[in-house]
Amino acid sequence: xxxxxxxxxxxxxxxxxxxxxxxxxxxxxxxxxxxxxxxxxxxxxxxxxxxxxxxxxx
Length: 58
Ligand SMILES: [Zn+2]
Known about the structure:
Elements (H helix, E strand, L loop, with lengths): L5 E2 L6 E2 L5 E4 L6 E4 L5 E2 L1 H8 L8
């Protein structure tokens, strides 16, 4: 299985799993933000990340 990572536009952090994100409940669907700088993460990407288990070092 391919692992998804996303580099935050705001702070350049590598977002790798749910713990790197902040969930914000929206009216239709939750939105996701970078935990460090609160920059929005595209929902499609965030959905994938949240379904990944946290990994050790790779
Ligand atoms: Zn960020």
